[in-house]
Amino acid sequence: MALKKSELYSSLWSSCDELRGGMDASQYKDYVLSLLFIKYVSDKYSGVPYAPIKIPAGSDFKAMVALKGATDIGDQINKHIIAPLAAANEQLNQADFPDFNDSTKLGDGKEKVEKLTNLIAIFENRALDFSKNRAEGDDILGDAYEYLMRHFATESGKSKGQFYTPAEVSRIMAQIIGIGQAQTSTDTTVYDPTCGSGSLLLKVGDEARAKVSLYGQEKDSATSGLARMNMILHDYPTAQIAPPGNTLTDPKFKHGDTIKQFDFVVANPPFSDKRWSTGLDPLHDPHARFKGFGIPPAKQGDYAYLLHNVRSLKSTGSSACILPHGVLFRGNAEADIRRALVRKGYIKGIIGLPANLFYGTGIPACIVVVDKKDAQARKGIFMIDASQGFMKEGPKNRLRSQDIHKIVDAFNKALDLPGYSRTVPYSEIEKNNYNLNLPRYIDSQKTEDRQDIEGHLRGGIPQADIDALQPYWEVCPGLKSTLFSEVRPGYLDLAVEKAAIKTTIFEHSEFSDFVAKMAAQFDAWRDENSEALKALTPGSNPKNVIFNLSEGLLAHYTGKPLIDKYDVYQHLMDYWAETMQDDVYAIALDGWKAETSRIIEKDKKGKEKDKGWTCDLIPKSYIVARYFAKEQAEIDELHAKLEATNAAIAELDEEHSGEDGLLAEGRNDKDKVAAALLKARRKALAGELDAGFFKRYDKLEKQGGAEEDIKAEFLEAIPDFQEVFVIDDMLKLLDEGGALGRAIKTAEAELDAAAYAKYPELTEAEIKTLVVDDKWMARINADIHGEIDGVSQSLTQRVRVLAERYETPMPKLASRVTDLEGKVADHLTAMGFAW
């Protein structure tokens, strides 16, 4: 049975992080990712003739496993694993790998041996078999690599997070530079001059329709090595990652003395690099990158990198570069460069991103899109202010799937969305002296909720506030007259009680029709896609599955009233990340198999304990709901009875609690009522109270219990008999609760066994119904239906706010204050105080 991708990633991270000890994450990542790389190429290419990566005999992961526990394990890895591997492949250098014999990082003697031995053991996990890594294009290894890189970037601290561009930002850049629409081949070139670990470069490559040629340069030698490995891990073994070097002072990709030009260029350079010109004479730049634009400030290198990108572009090329917002409005030399870029028509678009997205800084950044192809015909710059769309994740912000899709849609379709995006003509930019600061052109702030003076003075909700809810009235035109009535021209009153606002909205015929239409809307999408999902087979591409499913859902809800299609889309993407991708991945590997597995846990002594069973694809609850609903209902009824009994026990206990309470003698040292103590107390009372009465009472109890009038007779004769009555009532409840608990345990065990036995009997058709209809579609339906509930809640909340804001006019408030002042004065006078 396939291990869940999410579980694989998290277990890799937790295991690696546990072994890290005191080593900085930025260093430890080199060991972990190098081991991941060696494991991958060993599984993928060992013994494979003409493989793009040659694995010398005795230099694979199995040979590394054989070194576990060896006193010289680090030295052996360096000499007999890494050195031969690097020598056999021109894409690799031994310097790309960390020193596995470095005592300053790994410790000496036994500490080093144990650390490396345990680290190797992590990658012996049977689920990490990369010989069949791809489920028709779904790259579990590449995704695991991205997962680890993101976590290492988070852990590495402020100064060491530059080696990784968040995958969400990389996806945006890959989709807006036009490579997905271009006719690509291996002759198509993509370049990243500050490629870090290569994640951004790979995202662009994946966006292309056909395999392209990737080029990258990185000045940090360790990170450059990671990039080379990353290319191989993602099936780009021929990608050219240049030897380490500073792109500005020593660009590696050249035609003779001229910088090589590419079809596409992407970059996430270091923000505001203060040492960008070290080793370079900008006035005499041999590559003429600043000619016609101007020289960037000595202490501000952002435009140096951007102009390098411009120079590296073919005349038909397109580029996207991540830069701090300051490049849009800073003055002096940068203002001159900005003006020149705008006048040449090179800047196609600017996308403002949320703050705190990147690991090296918390400042907001933007993506500057440069496109030479249509520069002469361009009439303006397309701008997007996407600063408000994100989610919090730990200490950082992160773009959601809906944020990415909205940005890409708006940019590629040049959509004019109020408060979000529009094409700004050059004439308007020129009036602003070529300042490109986004707030000058796009007002992304929420509209201020204005207070109406007349409404406060005379009462009544302003008509303008009601008209602002026009999208609701377009769907439910009659609802407005049901909720409001006019009190005078331009002002209305609430026509229903405040407590009835939600009910009035939800039960209104027009709103009910809207809910029904939205339900039918989902049903149509479900019917259209369920059969396609049931047609999944081993080898299906999970990434294609979610792409087709999500794009179809987005298109299906486009133009629908009161519902944001991107919110609907996000529900699907959240569920995909949470559950569905693991299910589809399992189906892509193993087919429609609902296999159970035992849950084995180890105690502190390492002893294994069987904690029951589970099935990831079809959890027990779905089997029970479809095949054992009657049995579950009976158990639910038992639980309800037990809950009522426990409530009665608690009530009786509370009534007779305390040191002098009638149940005091039946409490244990934890102040809990105990049946054994109650029985002992009752026996003692039998010896203390009248024997004749007790015999008569016990006889009545055996016959079905004493009636209230008989109990009254007992109490009149012997008041202390009240304690007997209370003890017996409690004992009956405890017995009843115990019996119910045993019945529940027996019924649940029987149901558990029946459900467990049902799995082998399931046909493939039944499995598909359970997974697609009962699990996936039911959950997606519930989530999307929550958006409909949100519509009524939003309208209810707004109507309530407006009603409460203007329900008491100022004269009435003033009169109330006067009345209260009079009452206070009267009270003070009555008490003998002058006011």
TrEMBL record:
Q: Specify the N6 adenine-specific DNA methyltransferase N-terminal domain's residue ranges.
A: 10-123
Care to name a GO molecular-function term for this sequence?
Answer: N-methyltransferase activity
Catalysed reactions, semicolon-separated? a 2'-deoxyadenosine in DNA + S-adenosyl-L-methionine = an N(6)-methyl-2'-deoxyadenosine in DNA + S-adenosyl-L-homocysteine + H(+)
Occurrences of domain DNA methylase adenine-specific (ranges):
138-449
Give a Pfam family name: N6_Mtase
Coiled coil ranges (UniProt) are: 628-655
Q: What is its EC number?
A: 2.1.1.72
In Swiss-Prot or TrEMBL terms, this protein is called site-specific DNA-methyltransferase (adenine-specific)
Species in which this protein is naturally found: Altericroceibacterium endophyticum
